[in-house]
Amino acid sequence: MTRVAVIYYSSTGNVHQLAEAVRDGAAEAGADVRLRRVEELAPEEAIRQNPDWAAHRDATREVPVATLDDLDWADAYVFGSPTRFGNVAAQLKQFLDSAGPLWAEGRLAGKIASGFTSSQNAHGGQESTLLALYGTMYHWGAIVVAPGYTDPRVFASGGNPYGASSTEAPGDEELDAARHLGERVTSVAARLGAPAGR
C-alpha cells in the first residue's frame, strides 16, 4: 500500500480544508495516509489578536504534529502552505529545513512530492509559493508530481497546473481539485513503487 504524508501549515483554516481534501483523495485512491500539521511559530499575542487564527488553532489541536518520522515513513508527500508574500510560510519552511539529517542520508530522494496553497487574492502568489516549495523538493531528489491539466476538476477550480489552490476559503470546486491531487499523487507513487531503502 502506498504511504502518503499530507503535511501542512494553516493559520485560519483554509489550507487545513485543502489538506483534508488531499487526504481524502489519497485515501480513496488506496493510500495509507497521515495528515499532519506543523507547529505554530507565531507568538501567542499575534494569534490572540486575530480571532480566526485563534479559533482555527484551537479547532485543529487534535491533528498530530508532523515529525521527521512522517517524512521517512512516506512514499509520497503533499505539502500545504498559505502564501506568505508569494512564498512558503515560515512554519512549514522551518519543518522542511529540519529535514537536513534525512536529506544527508538520502532518505528523502526518489519519493513523490506535490503541494497546495491558499491566498487571500487570486493573484496573491499561489503559483510562486508552489514553485518555491518545489525548489526544496528538487534538492531532496524528490519527484515532483503536479496536477497539470489531467482532470476537468483542475479547470473547474481555476486551472492551477502547479498544485491545488484556493482563494480564501476553498469552495467545492477547489476541494474537488485538492482531492484530485491526492488521487494523482497516490496513483503515480503506486506505479513507481516504494523508494529504494524501504
Task: Write up this protein.
The chain is built from 9 helices and 7 strands. The protein is an alpha/beta fold and 198 residues long. Strands 1, 2, 3, 4, 5, 6 and 7 form a 7-stranded mixed beta sheet that branches. Helix 1 crosses helix 9. It is globular. It starts with a strand and ends in a 6-residue tail after the last helix.
Task: Give the proportion of residues in helices.
Answer: 40-55%
- Distance between the ends: 12 Å
Query: Quick one: overall form?
Result: globular
What number is the mean pLDDT? Answer: 93
Task: Write the H/E string, N to C.
Answer: EHEHHHEEHHEHEHEH
Share of residues in strands: 15-25%
Which residues form runs of ≥5 with pLDDT under 50? none
Query: Helical segment tally?
Result: 9
**How many strand units?**
7
**Main β-sheet, in a few words?**
7 strands, mixed
Global Rg: 15 Å
- The structural class is alpha/beta
Structure characteristics:
single chain, alpha/beta, 198 residues, seven-stranded mixed β-sheet
Give the topology, please.
Blueprint: E1 3-8, H1 14-28, E2 32-37, H2 44-48, H3 51-59, H4 68-73, E3 76-84, E4 87-88, H5 90-97, H6 100-104, E5 112-119, H7 126-140, E6 143-144, H8 152-156, E7 164-167, H9 172-192
Parallel strand pairs: 1-2, 1-3, 3-5, 5-6, 5-7
Antiparallel strand pairs: 3-4
Helix pairs in contact: 1-9
Task: Give a short summary of the structure.
With 198 residues, the protein is an alpha/beta fold. It has helices at residues 14-28, 44-48, 51-59, 68-73, 90-97, 100-104, 126-140, 152-156, 172-192, and strands spanning 3-8, 32-37, 76-84, 87-88, 112-119, 143-144, 164-167. The chain contains nine helices and seven strands, in the order E-H-E-H-H-H-E-E-H-H-E-H-E-H-E-H.
